[in-house]
């Protein structure tokens, strides 16, 4: 009897170490109770450094036993109400097109240092493509172990942009784990990627035919690049003619809105080196509502976002800073105090991240060769980013 009790206590302790969760019924900016089941929490993925990944889990509104389960590395079931910021917390509304209406979706802030994920030791932030992918795999194993009712759900791994490198790698790790009988056995069915990164050299060179196809560059420039840049590294060309042609190419590319090239160009609302000095479209000039919000947040916004025009596609991104850095939001989500000082959207160099996965092609080949389904969709965007958090201190 005593042995059973000790075993039970040990199991409970391990479960607690693997995951700490909170059921969220209300969120700042949204009126009334949430019309779906939302759980947030942390899962420790590296005991040595104390690395914990933050997640949001939305249970499908569809119900039923065969509802797909999707690990998605970006996105969410809400969207911001696009209206002039007035110093109060931005308003949320339900996204009518959210996949959570038909699938269980587990959103994860990854890699370490993105969103509200954090490490207790500085070394925990030194991650890269491979190490962060392995952490995500460990995260999923532990999360499913703590939520066994979803073990039999058809599992898909998904993400867009830079996650295009990560997703097929994780799918392969799950497939390999199932082959050797690692418990729990995950019911992997396939994966999907949107606007996916494949590898730096491949992606850089593919921008040229992409831009040509959309009429950003002329036939003449396109043919010049093809003629002089064969076998060249497009980021560091050694051929003088190639370098000159690529210089012209990048100059033309700078005239379009990279996150969505079919929209008119406006300020990209992400933290920059010094947004105060950027005066385009009124960017960087603080308005009274911004100052009031920073005071309410205890001056949390040390890297204030660039303010785009209201009709810019990025205006909702601007609103996200004020929502995510509000203490009421953090309290509602169960963000641990002292872990992330400032929530910063899409800032390159936010953490010492290593791009050590040169190409994801072999992982696509390996996973699809084993019979798993795959979807890859490319839209009109050629930029990627992450949402970074900054630790206190």
UniProtKB/TrEMBL annotation:
Coiled coil: none annotated. Keywords: Signal. GO terms for molecular function: acyltransferase activity, transferring groups other than amino-acyl groups; serine-type carboxypeptidase activity. Residues 1-20 form the signal peptide. This is Serine carboxypeptidase-like 19. It comes from the Eukaryota. One of its GO terms (biological process) is secondary metabolic process. The keyword Signal applies. Belongs to the peptidase S10 family. Gene3D superfamilies: alpha/beta hydrolase. Pfam families: Peptidase_S10. It comes from Aegilops tauschii subsp. strangulata.
